[in-house]
Design a protein that fits this description.
The chain has two domains: 69 residues, D-amino Acid Aminotransferase, Chain A, domain 1 (2-Layer Sandwich), CATH 3.30.470; 117 residues, D-amino Acid Aminotransferase, Chain A, domain 2, CATH 3.20.10. The chain is built from three helices and 13 strands; from the N terminus they run ββαβββαββββαββββ. The strands form three sheets. Strands 10-9-8-11-12 form a five-stranded mixed β-sheet. A four-stranded antiparallel β-sheet has the order 2-1-3-4. 26% of the residues are buried.
Length: 198
């Protein structure tokens, strides 16, 4: 079994959305190993060199926490997406092994990021959940590969609405935004629908 990954934003020494990351980690440990909850915060002592700016914290675990690492976060600009149908991907658990995503990215150098579809429905990009803007409201697919922490927070705060989104629905939207622990739901970061390669 591959190890499991939790990726967390540290902003000026402060762990962001800790409760959401801890809840997902503990759900995963319960589902896979039948283990009781642990306090994730006790493993997240941010070293002094990473107390300033935005930092990427990686927690690798199985039954126990195996590794915690910190690196400065590097934002990846994304301007063009390509749709790729792959019903074989099962990423309900945030596995450390991301080989299938890497293969799709390598196979489509014409795009900055891949948008995975399954059976004609939109799921996720390889690095993020997605939300589509129709001119009035943001919608996120009900068929994500991974229930991301930022996506869940946006649902809980009613900033996005979940609904099934098919490939054939894409042109009814104006833009798409990639959302994850480092990517906020912002109009200025949205990608025009015309930049999705069908």
């Amino acid at each position: 079994m591959s190890s499991i990954l939790e990726t967390i934003q540290i902003n000026n020494g402060t762990v962001q959305q800790l409760a959401y990351h801890e809840a997902r980690l503990n759900r995963t440990r319960q589902e896979l190993f039948g283990l009781p909850p642990l306090a994730l915060a006790s493993f997240l002592q941010v070293p002094n060199p990473y107390q300033q700016g935005i930092v990427r914290c990686r927690v690798i675990y199985r039954q126990h926490i195996e590794e915690v690492s910190f690196v400065p976060y590097q934002f990846k600009p994304i301007q063009k997406l390509v749709l790729v149908e792959d019903p074989s991907i099962d990423y309900r658990i945030k596995w450390l092994d991301r080989q299938s995503f890497a293969q799709h990215l390598a196979a489509h150098p014409q795009a900055d990021e891949v948008l995975i579809t399954q059976h004609g429905f939109i799921t996720d990009a390889t690095i993020a959940n997605v939300a589509f803007w129709d001119g009035r409201q943001w919608f996120t697919p009900t068929t994500p590969l991974l229930c991301g922490t930022k996506r869940q927070w946006l649902l809980d705060t009613q900033q996005i609405v979940a609904k099934p989104i098919k490939i054939t629905d894409i042109n009814t939207y104006q833009a798409v935004c990639l959302i994850n622990t480092f990517r906020d739901l912002r109009h200025e970061d949205a990608i025009p629908i015309e930049q999705i390669l069908l």
